[in-house]
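Holo prediction. Input below; ligand is magnesium ion.
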Amino acid sequence: MASVKIVKNMNEIVIKSSTANRVRLKSDIFKNYQNISLIEKTLHNIVVNFRENTACKSIVLTYSSNTTLENILQKINTLFPTITQSIPASNAICGVEGGCVTCNIKSDISPITFKRKVIEFGILTAYSIYLFITENILGIVATTSPFSLVAVVAIVAAIPLLKEAYEDIQKGTFTLQTFMSGTLILAILFGEATAAFEIIYILRGGILLEEYIATKSRNEIKNLIELDIQKVYTLVDDVEIEVDIDEICIGDVVVSRSGEKIPVDGMIIEGSAEIDESLINGRSDSAFKQKDDELFAGTFCETGRVYIKVTAIGNDTYISRVMSDVEKSLALKSPAQLEADKLASKLLKLGSIMTLGTLLVSGSFLNAFSVMIIMSCPCSTILAASTAISAGIANGAKQGILIKGGEALEKISQSEVFCFDKTGTLTTGKPIIKDIVLSENIDKKTFFSYLATAEYRNSHPIATAIVEYTKKLDIYIEQDAQTEVLPGYGVKSIYKKKVIFAGNQSLFTKQKISTKEFKKQTSHHLDDGKTIVYLAVDKKLLGYITLEHEIREGTKKMISDLRAKGVKHIALVTGDEVKVANAFALDFNFDTVFANQTPHGKADAIESLKKQYKNVVMVGDGVNDTLAMSKADVAISFAAGGSDAAIEVSNIAITHSHPEDVVNLYDLSKKTLKVVNQNYWIGTSTNIIGAGFAAIGLLSPAAAGAIHIGHTTSIMANSSRLAIDNNS
Ligand code: ADP
Ligand code: MG
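Structure of the complex:
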């Protein structure tokens, strides 16, 4: 899995936000009061207002209009000579070209230059229309000598290209830019200024279109997470005060009420509310959240009021991290894009040979030029892959399928095996407690208070169901037991010197706690496909409960659709009992079952499938299956709202918990690859055929230029189908 490594200089200063005369800076040097007072002293002449927050490692400065931000940064730099540079947040955090959705400072350069490029291209278009009218309608033949107007326009329009080519020549490399610049200059020198103009016109149009598609993809992702929250209410000495969201730190308490978006990730410390979490998990019905429940930025408080202790803000929130991964992935090259680069460099060599060959064989400069012009734009080959893939990623984002990189998108439809985790992935996150069977002398209240105490801090769906059930019974739950999660087995918890075990048969066998007394009953439950959780305190069995899992709607169809579309093998990889897993697999038509697996067992299952098949996909919810996900060729986190490990390890996150999204993703992958192939075909074939015609003198340099306009536009149009079409 490709990923972008973020290397941060310990002592760099990051500009977190900057408005007229006010700036918020962040750096490790600001966590020290001595440093702060030194800065304050040094800046006191030029700074009107100085606020520090050592916990956030930040300072907020309002400065007088007779100074500049550069001046302030320079002054801080001289105080701490080890600081290497001061960088705006956008560069410091991700280096995404053209501004990044998750960074506070949007690079101003990109939108302005983009606008300028559009205007410049508009002028060039107007000029080409003028040329067309004068030549073809009015019949006035424009001069195309090296000093004609067309030549001057072409040269001016080519300045950025010529600059790049000059830099490449200085480095001693022969690139696309040098080849194109050479063609352009020669065309002008030999009196083919119209052709030169056409080359540069297409090139600029192509770059503009590519940028447009990439920006559009990025904006679509940006719209999904736009929080639009500027002001929040925070508790200071028990008083609610309104502050800028920038001022909030981890550990602060913010207040959210009915009708407001939750501005941060955090834990409820007081109050309760109905929260619409569809952004995170796609569930349409709201969830009731109360004290100690986790909340995520971007979710919506429908009714109620909650006091939230902040655990993550800004770029560090769950949704921002997922989105920034997706966004960064737009800059990463997928296999098809790397292939395109290789093909383009081959075409470049072929172009040079064909040009030279034509010149030698036909002796015609004009023919050689036409060949050169045709072959000088293998950029269409590069655009073939990159535009299709960024359009595909944007299309996915719109459907709540967040794809971190073209590589994952391409691999999905080339995968022969799909593996699914069961609990939490194919079943809803909320199992229902069905039977409660207690040993003699144990009452329900004691039983559940032990069970819920052990499960309290666990995020497993079974644990959540138990805690919720216990709360409904109004049974008090101890919250400070020492609990250890035993992945794939259950939990071990120590409370007031009592050792509690809650979990499956494997756990109890391992702990040598007999469950024989219930053997008859449990066997029936297992036949019914119910999951059994036993409870023991100090190695004494207190009873068990059974849970029934609700299977997500559309699971059966998803499996049959994937198979019909060409997936060779579909496997169930679960920690559940063999009997339960087998019944489930049979019902849902799985090819193989790996039951009773620990997280390591699940990972081994993936490894063994990888030996037999090409590309294995693992779909999991991030509970007990992240190791398996990390071993798979493509990891999809499904319904994993908030699981850190699942976000880190997955290549694709499906945020809505609809099984059909897996099929949609498969289709999107297939369609993207199809568009890439079509684009290659359009680009390469017109290049080769055109060059052939040009070599034998059937194509004038101007017509060669026109062919470029045709195929570059077709490629762009073909790719943008992916971005628009929602039912791919
Ligand atoms: P799956 O692979 O189907 O998602 P898990 O690996 O998460 O299942 O869990 C496997 C089994 O381990 C469960 O079926 C259950 O019997 C047991 N188990 C896991 N976590 C808990 C828990 N918190 N409490 C009780 N039992 C648990
Ligand atoms: Mg699971």
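DSSP finds 26 helices and 26 strands in the chain. That is the main takeaway for now.
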